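Quick one: structure tokens for this chain, please?
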Amino acid sequence: MKNNSNFIRQRAYLAVLHLLNSILAGGKYPDILIGELFKSENFSSGEKAAIVEFVYGILRHLGRIDYIIEHASRARIGGLHLNIINILRICAYQAVFTHTSPAGIINNAVALSAHENKLSEFVKRTVEGVIKNKGAVVFPDKDKNAVEYISVYHSHPAWIVEKWLKEFNEPGAVEALCTANNHEPPLIIRANPLKTNRTLLQSSLEKEGYSSSPTVFSPFGLVVDKKEGIFKTDAFANGAFEVQDEGSQLITLLTGAKPGECVVDACAGNGGKSLFLSGLMKNQGTVIAFDQMPGKLGNLRRRAQRAGALNIKTEPVDKAQQYTGKADCVFIDAPCSGMGVFRRNPDSKWRLAGKDIRELSAKQKEIIREYSGLVKPGGRLVYATCTISREENEEVVRGFLEERKDFCLIPASEMNPGIFSKFTTEDGFFRSMPHVHNTDGFFGAVMRLK
């Protein structure tokens, strides 16, 4: 439970309400909206922390909060206007997950619903019911209905829980995964090998007031103890590090990229992995970065300048065929459903639908077919996603290997036994999991062109 001891003005709770309305009705992204809010309005550091905590906390625990509202009061939230539902959620979150006094919560309910004329009394009564009965709410029986229990208590859509139960066949593992998804992830940074190493970075950040500890698996990562102001440090300005989860660092290391190679980053996005590839290659050889969105490649070029990554060449996707049969390694970090990063993007679990996975799987098969042609004989094809979904992972790779008998799977552990033996599945794939490794959930497969 968090202790909201700092003085938080009412306008901060109003900001939370507006943010939730925009995220849950308009499908807007929380990090972008919060960034825009903090640029345009003046909040104290305590208020900023509270706004972030409430928005992400409510999105993480939405299912449980809604269940508590309905089972601790007479409210049926299905037919209510979203603004009213979100006022109730803010107050229920305060009641269940913070140390706010009952009087403070009721005052907040009254203030937030002041303009709701006919419904302000209903909001107050409902919040009083939640405060009084929150401890007596009976959740679904875990043994009789694992899907309903995990879905409600650990706040994941039932269809996702059902899918994972089928794929893992281990209710305990699925519950542990959903629990881990609701924890705030640590801030992980990656030392830029072109400018520093982890030990030097740790000591320079320490001098700037940022203590950290080495990541467990990646030899380049640091877990930083505080987030605020990290991008204002000299270390960041000098390009000594990038923010990158440990799972993402490992999946980049899985490529085995070496100095002098030609490495294609097929879905480079804003370029976090391209920058790391450049560092692993010591600026020798070439990283060719493709992406459908020119704006993202523009971001990558700016970041590359700061990082001193001189061997990255950005290309529009229609130029890909020029590199047919030329790449030592083609790295496909495919667009996916993002089920492995729910702890970072809790809004996405409420946005995702089953049909999205089917559409993404078809797109992934297309991408792997298209870019596999760039691999030269003896070269590597590395397919990766940040999702936990068989259709987007194992099935895509197996389907490809059925089609292309000239490629063979290399067990992930062979790429670096010291690191990857802990992540290699029985089938030879790479898999990192939030509840097992405290990293984002990544999948990877390494294939070689014979």
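Residues 414 and 420 are 8 Å apart (CA to CA).
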